Amino acid sequence: MTEIETPSIRVLLCDDHVVVRAGLLALLDSAPGIEVVGEAGSGEEAVALAEKLRPDVVLMDLQLGAGIDGVEATRQIAPTGVHVLVLTTYDTDADITRAIGAGATGYLLKAERPEELFSAIHAAAQGRTTLSPPVASIVMARMRSPQPTLTERELEILGQLAQGLGNRDIARALFISEATVKTHLGRIYDKLGVDTRAGAVSVAKEQRLLG
Amino acid sequence: MTEIETPSIRVLLCDDHVVVRAGLLALLDSAPGIEVVGEAGSGEEAVALAEKLRPDVVLMDLQLGAGIDGVEATRQIAPTGVHVLVLTTYDTDADITRAIGAGATGYLLKAERPEELFSAIHAAAQGRTTLSPPVASIVMARMRSPQPTLTERELEILGQLAQGLGNRDIARALFISEATVKTHLGRIYDKLGVDTRAGAVSVAKEQRLLG
DNA sequence: CCCTGCGTCAACCGATCGGTTGACGCAGGT
DNA sequence: ACCTGCGTCAACCGATCGGTTGACGCAGGG
């Protein structure tokens, strides 16, 4: 028994919460066929370690406190051929879309059962996709009725809006005319299904479209 | 060695994320002198199990998805003499204040080192308070300059505001005059340090004053 | 008993917003 | 070459907002 028959899947953890990381480490170490080869507390660290350790799977949280977020880290890691499995709390449309767009292999919620996590890690190691049921539903729903996506510019406007700025101030901040701001706002209202600025900010914060 | 010299501290976990719970379980079981006697996935469950199991410490997350939140659960558990140690992601003013007000014995962030968690659990078991450094800072700051607290009524107004309602609609919804709404809004602006409704919603969402 | 905080209401004003219509240039894709 | 999406701008209107001042009743604490 000096030979390992099935080599363990080498996993890199990325989560800014030390306690959660430690917990996952303890949890995964108890699972057969999975070996945690590294931990990262930030997106930058994850990118560096992914390159250095070349794990089979990176278990990635999206919310990473300061620095680049999980989506950006995924965007940098995925092209190197390392599979990224997103494990996060949020099941909002915007997060899922961005993560998939960034090249995530799978998307699991922390509310998922541990066995699901284990099998998702196995799946991800082979490049197969696993989605938590609620996430899958959202993806399906979006396929059916492609939900409006805010453009870059509109997000900028929204950002200023959330600062409580008036149209004139927004116009000055972005070097455009007040009329343009109003045009954008109108489209934003349409896409978000609201008709006031306060409502727009509210929805934006809920959908996590803003920081 | 049939006798246990120092009986283990009996801990009840409460977190709506199964993976996190499993992780914490694995982590705490590896710690000497700590024994996890139960797990709850909701506030209601935590209240019931706390009464039934009478643990030494309840490790409580604040965000619990559906049902009552961690603060409410704490409010119900604390009076029974069971110590509640809050372990959460958020270090916002409002959360800390509410948790302490509800009777939490300590307040730790998930970003804390596991050793801190262990010692905080020991401390909590004896009724001693442990605060994460950032949390302690916030508490101190608040002592120095008692930050404006929104009244019940103002929070109601704020809630309507976040729905994107106009003053007239808010007035109707709360059975008061439009003038009163404006008066409240003026005070809300003052307290939140903004001067527009969009700004107020933004700050409110950031401070987690609203759902 | 007085004072403070809270919630309520009124009337006024200028500034701003929300909605509309119509238009132009530019890029990317077919 | 065409079309679509995006970003830009203009002018207009009524409705709404933000700010102000002043006022009342009621509860709780000193």
UniProtKB/TrEMBL annotation, chains A, B:
Q: What are the Response regulatory domain coordinates in residue numbering?
A: 10-125
Q: Does DNA-binding appear among the keywords?
A: yes
4-aspartylphosphate sites (modified residues): D61
The cross-references to Gene3D superfamilies, in alphabetical order and at most eight, read: 3.40.50.2300
Q: Per its record, what are the GO molecular function terms?
A: DNA binding
The domain of life is Bacteria
Which PROSITE patterns does the record cross-reference, listed alphabetically? HTH_LUXR_1 (PS00622), HTH_LUXR_2 (PS50043), RESPONSE_REGULATORY (PS50110)
Sequence intervals crossing the membrane:
none
Identify the residues that the record assigns to the HTH luxR-type domain, covering every copy: 143-208
List UniProt keywords, sorted A-Z: DNA-binding, Phosphoprotein, Transcription, Transcription regulation
**Gene Ontology BP annotations:** phosphorelay signal transduction system; regulation of DNA-templated transcription
Q: Which Pfam families match?
A: GerE, Response_reg
UniProt-recorded name of the protein? Response regulator transcription factor
Species assigned in the record:
Streptomyces mesophilus
